[in-house]
Specification:
The protein is mainly alpha-helical. It is 85% helix and 0% strand. Helix 1 packs antiparallel against helix 2 and helix 5 crosses helix 6.
Length: 158
């Protein structure tokens, strides 16, 4: 039951940001469901991995694949469906404690917490970059093959 509540709150958080970003209609629904996917994936990978950065990494991969697919279906920039679903994954609590330690001049805890926050942020960034790079490479190869086949047809006709 707690997983359901966590996914529901992640979905509602994503919904709020989707409204904030002026998404309407099916784009609003797709982005909101991406929020459920992001936190659901994070929880799902918690079954096998106890490392939070690794769970964030896999959640970022899942959301980026989701965003790339729906961006092509809806003919919309990928960021439309990528930013909103990432909202539940933002390590707000860890970031809060990091800044709290800094304000209290507790430098030992600050450094430890800051490195952990950076690990989580890097896991999200690397997950997005990996999928985006693979999609761009795949698109470039497809374009090259289409152009190559198209040029052969043009040569045969002349």
């Amino acid at each position: 039951m707690t997983y359901f509540i966590q996914i529901l709150t992640g979905t509602l958080g994503a919904f709020g940001f989707a409204i904030l970003y002026n998404l309407r209609g099916t784009k609003l629904l797709i982005a909101t469901l991406g929020g459920a996917l992001s936190w659901g994936t994070y929880l799902f990978f918690g079954i096998w991995f106890h490392s939070e950065p690794l769970r964030y990494f896999f959640a970022a991969i899942a959301v980026t694949i989701y965003a790339e697919i729906f961006a092509r279906i809806k003919k919309t920039p990928t960021s439309t469906f990528l930013i909103v679903p990432m909202i539940p994954l933002i390590p707000g609590g860890v970031l809060y404690y990091t800044m709290s330690y800094a304000l209290k001049n507790d430098w030992n805890n600050f450094v430890t917490s800051a490195f952990y926050t950076i690990k989580l942020a890097m896991a999200l960034a690397v997950g997005i970059i990996v999928v985006s790079t693979l999609v761009r490479m795949f698109s470039a190869v497809l374009k090259f093959l289409r152009d190559k086949n198209g040029n052969k047809k043009d040569r045969k006709e002349t």
